[in-house]
């Protein structure tokens, strides 16, 4: 079976038209699948980013500084809405966190909210980008907050150990010697006068007794009474001899 040149040209032309239509349809479908802006405060991105799938640097992928920060989705004072709904409200951020932005994913794209564009808390009506031919607002599949935790104070308060030194003050001891007592001793001396008369002179000298000696002087058993008698006799005899000698000289 032979094919005429005209028939061959018709087949080629039909194939080209078919390929062109297919290419146009594919391009239109691709354009339709791109997410559309839904919020003037957000920047639209296609594809997926998820902090819960161990994706490397999800905040950096979204163009935000920091790392994903945990917020308590069950705390109505912090978060309202979120996963499974079309809107997310962030009402409060813990003081220990510094937020740089919020990522909201839904459909085939995600919105990135910068803190500079959000302004002061609360941040309400955060949403995913529009999707589909009719620019539908999809439910939020997941979201996360990027930022940094404020550095905790690493200064530890060390309670000083209570150590003390007990100083015992001892009372001064009184040291001394008891005062010594003195007793006068009587010393009797005999003197001979030129007239032959004997006179007794008594001289009193203090004698120092040892400390603590509170009794009488020790008795030695010596008695000097007989010496007094002998001394007196010698004085009388001497006087008589002197008188006799003078008498003899006078006679001569």
Automatic annotation (TrEMBL):
PROSITE patterns assigned to the protein according to its UniProt record, in alphabetical order:
GRAM_POS_ANCHORING, TAT
Keywords in alphabetical order: Cell wall, Membrane, Peptidoglycan-anchor, Secreted, Signal, Transmembrane, Transmembrane helix
Q: Which InterPro entries match?
A: LPXTG_anchor, TAT_signal
Q: Repeat: present as a keyword of the record?
A: no
Q: Where are the transmembrane segments?
A: 226-245
List, for all copies, the residue spans of the domain called Gram-positive cocci surface proteins LPxTG.
Answer: 217-252
This chain's protein is named: Gram-positive cocci surface proteins LPxTG domain-containing protein
Give the source lineage, highest ranks first.
Bacteria, Bacillati, Actinomycetota, Actinomycetes, Pseudonocardiales
